[in-house]
Specification:
five-stranded antiparallel β-sheet, Jelly Rolls, 12 strands, mainly beta
Length: 164
């Protein structure tokens, strides 16, 4: 502390990262193929956690969901890789409390590479304690299409608290 009553102050450099506590943050993913039906919105299953500092994710119950433990501004991001197929569209979406879509990425693939399109969606969004977000995909290729794991990169759903 510096200064005296009635104007105390915190000394420059006195508040370091180790004194801030643990900020809410999670990174969940799937390490197996998930088959997405044609022309049907589907929640992604995410049964693996790379980290979860304050129980934002549950591997067994609603594992497509991330829940805010405290109110504040959150950075939310999702990514997915599709199996190679050039027909139709692919949509990746993040929704808030089973209602409003707060981030989306849509692509019409036209590549012929050995893997399909990769998509990312992210946003900054203000949440109340107990609010949740979930991640879903949609495709209309004409038949079932796989979302494929790509080591640690797909599919991934992550959220971290940024500010009050």
């Amino acid at each position: 502390m510096t200064g005296n009553f009635p104007n105390p102050a915190i000394a420059s450099g006195a508040v370091t990262p180790s004194k801030l506590g643990t900020f809410p943050a999670v990174r969940a993913r799937n390490d197996a193929i998930q088959t997405i039906p044609n022309n049907s919105g589907t929640l992604l299953t995410l049964g693996v956690e790379d980290f979860d500092s304050q129980n934002l994710h549950d591997n067994a119950i609603n594992n497509n969901r991330l829940t805010a433990p405290i109110a504040g501004l959150y950075h939310i991001t999702a990514s997915v890789r599709w199996h190679a197929n050039t027909a139709g569209r692919r949509v990746l979406g993040i929704s808030h409390n089973d209602a409003a879509t707060i981030a989306r990425d849509t692509v019409s693939p036209n590549n012929t590479s050995t893997f399909g399109p990769e998509q990312d969606a992210d946003t900054l969004f203000r949440m109340s304690a107990g609010d949740f977000v979930d991640v879903s995909v949609f495709q209309d290729s004409g038949g079932p299409l796989n979302v494929e794991p790509a080591q640690l990169a797909s599919p991934v759903f992550a959220m971290s608290w940024v500010a009050p």
